[in-house]
Amino acid sequence: MPQAAFVRLFLARCCLLLSLALLGAGCAKTTVRKAYRIGFSQCTNGDAWRLAMLAGMQKELSFYPEVTFRMKDARNSSAVQQQQIKEFLREGVDLLIVSPNEAEPITPIVEEAFNRGIPVVILDRRTTSKLYTAYVGGNNTEVGRIAGNYISSLLGGRGNVLEVLGPIGASPALDRHQGLTQALAAHPGVRLVAQVHGNWERPSVIRQLPAVLRAHPEVDLIFAHNDRMALGAYQICKQQGLSRRVRIVGVDGLPGTQGGIQFVQDGILTATMLYSPGGEEAIRTAMKILHRQPYDKENLLSTMVIDSTNAPTMKLQAEKLRSQQQDIQRQQQLLQRQRDTYANQQTVRYVLLAALLGAAGLGFVAYRAFQANRRITRRLERQNEEISSQRNRIVELAEQARVETEAKLRFFTNFSHELRTPLTLILGPVEELLTAPSALTAPQRHDLGLVRRNAQRLLQLVNQLMDFRKIDVGKMPVRATQGNLVAFVREIMDVFEKPARQRGISLRFLPAEPVIPLWFDVNILDKVFFNLLANALKFTPDRGQITVSIQPVPAEGRVRVSVEDTGPGISEQDRQHIFEWFYQGQDSAVKGSGMGLALALGLTRLHQGQLTFSSQPGQGSTFVVTLPRELPAALTTTAPAPTTAAFALDEDSLLPATPALPPALATGLDSEALVLVIEDNAEVNAFLSQKLRPHFQVQTALDGATGLRLAAETIPDLIVCDVMLPEISGLEVVAQLKGDWRTSHIPVVLLTARSAPEQQVEGVQAGADLYLTKPFNPTFLLESIRTLLGNRQRQREHFRRELSVSTATVAPQRVDQKFLADLTAIVEANLSRSELSVEDVARSLGISRVQLYRKVKAVLGTGVTDFIQGIRLTKARQLLLDDELTIAEVAYQLGFSTPSYFSTSFRARYQVSPSEFRALHTTPSA
């Protein structure tokens, strides 16, 4: 090749390489982030807590390299701080963070900065004005209140406290003292006997405390407003030989060798209140403001008690965070060095590219630079993988927390079951003694009644605790159905009429309208209104008055239900605690568990409503439940609403009612019928056997597998089974019994401590014939068994008979006969209407809904809806005998919305499905 051609080829290749390199350099864009200047005016930086605040700021600022941060220390001088803030304003900072030395002197200069459009973040101590952009700091009143509650618990509700406060007039000292006194006011046995004012430093306490301790040798505990003063108190107590008797509680809870967490772990302090410096939160809030992102104006930092139970964990977490922060800093330094290296390489690359036309070896150098970039990229990818691994670890921790929450709920559920089992063994014999015609003396009967009432009271407390835990972990779902709120509240009030009448209390019901349709969960609102009415009855004196009113508010789309009493009212001291769990009024002579109102509030909020109250001492109280008329679709259901729970009232407490006993139906097989008892608790198993053996033959099993085997071998006439069994649960036992043709006909009575409605539905759906909740009435269980056996004996004859569509109830008077005849005619004329309502029937009879309800209740002892349902199901038995009609056609002819609802209703009434009924009463065609 000629030399000129070689040179041209060489120059062409160099130009091509230069063009490609320049093009690649032009495509590499560097993201430039906007620079900000933040000024921080600190009142002092001379103590560990303030240094921790600054360290937190610097740690958070490491994520924002574009921010220039300057801190000026006023050294506890308000005048110096004013001058420093003015300097920041002259320098033109983009945002100002101020930790005021004193509120009033600093307020004017902060307002000036705010009015000039400079965002101001107030940190730790507040100013006297609301003209600031955001506030970050702890709630000193809450710190004092939590400390007071912890001290009262630590002293067992009785002891003497010495308080070491901050400087006189300092807002943190005032707020913490106020919170402490508020908390101690609820515990009269704990007294605040002396005070010492320090200046937040240890020497001030060492100078003053010895004389105060000599003047008050009865001191049991010292509460210091920070850990430094608490350390001074410990040194004085140690000098005077009081370190073992006098406990010390501080505030701050800083990590490190000289922090409160280490003092707690070393036994110097009994506990310390966590008071976060808030440095990280201040920078996060500032960056949200600068980046124009949503932020909260008030950012209150939470607090907690750090004692020997959690100090090691807190210390470990602090060390882990410090280690992670150091790793992050090292990674950032490495990344910065890599960026510097990359920038230097870019510079060298440009120089080399400029000299490419004169040097043949430039391509090799460019290749080496490319290799270096690849190494940097791989290093960055490894760092991204580490960050992803940390994120996955956080997800795992969140999942672990969810699993622990589920474990808590299972623990409370099992704990409730364990409590219900001994209650069964208490209430069972007591009920039998009270109902048996034995020669009990009046004092003995009185004592047994006292035992029964208190055992039932304990059962109610267990149920309320279960509801509390369900609300706490979010396991109580809302299943709202549409219904008439007026009728619902009226049914609950009916329970209270007798005890109110016995005490001469006037119980008034004032609905604004006879019918107020509303979407609501019967199970939830039943507990809310029952607790409010029970509370009103408890505090209303004899011959007083309770008024329940219902008022729709169309403008707000809500309904208000108020319960007003004429009791003694609620004192100012009790009002702020009235909805707290387990709180009992200080001045009231009537004491309860302290759960009723708290449970009502939690359930009302769960129902997306509000519970408020007003009270005038000496005149009474009014509790108002405000409910939305419409609920989100996720909270509603079209399933039939469960009936409200029945309750019995006496002069001592409100207790779950003992179910009414059905009339004894002699089966004629009492001595021959075989009953199988499956119960894992040996005492309950023996108790059931003892009560059933005088009337039936009894076999027992202590687990589900043995029970299934005995059932298949002996084919008993009836099985009594517990739900919670080892290995195979009671629900699985029922499912297997109903799935086996040998045992599918055997009636099963389920006994359980699981009282939730959805759990009862689950038991019935599994195929149980009767579902009894522990503790149960032994007599009721015995009569229920006799009834089930009697029904089973007559079942074939019952299924072979054809029933008339006329009602079986005969009214005692001619007027009532005509009323029932008209009512039956109207219902039968509208059987095909699925939307037939109680209001439609009342309108056809020319009376109001309330009049119709009371009339049917008085004549038939049942509700109008049940009466309509009974006629439809009776008519269904006749139509099912016609082979030309399908079951679905029968369902729609009788006004059922769906065939499945018809089948469910038919089985609930007659214990067989429509198809089974038809198979028993029709002959297949040849």
What does this structure look like?
With 926 residues, the protein is α/β, with parallel strands linked by helices. It has five domains: 33-132 and 276-309, Response regulator (Rossmann fold, 3-Layer(aba) Sandwich); 152-266, Rossmann fold, CATH 3.40.50.2300; 479-656, Histidine kinase-like ATPase, C-terminal domain (Heat Shock Protein 90, 2-Layer Sandwich), CATH 3.30.565.10; 674-792, Rossmann fold; 814-921, Homeodomain-like (Arc Repressor Mutant, subunit A), CATH 1.10.10.60. The protein contains 30 helices and 26 strands. The strands form six sheets. A six-stranded parallel sheet has the order 2-1-3-4-5-11, sandwiched between helices. A six-stranded mixed sheet has the order 7-6-8-9-10-12, with helices on both faces. Helix 11 (311-354) packs antiparallel against helix 12, helix 13 packs parallel to helix 17 and helix 15 runs antiparallel to helix 17. It starts with a helix and ends in a 5-residue tail after the last helix. Mean pLDDT is 80; it is low at 3-8, 25-30, 644-670 and 796-815.
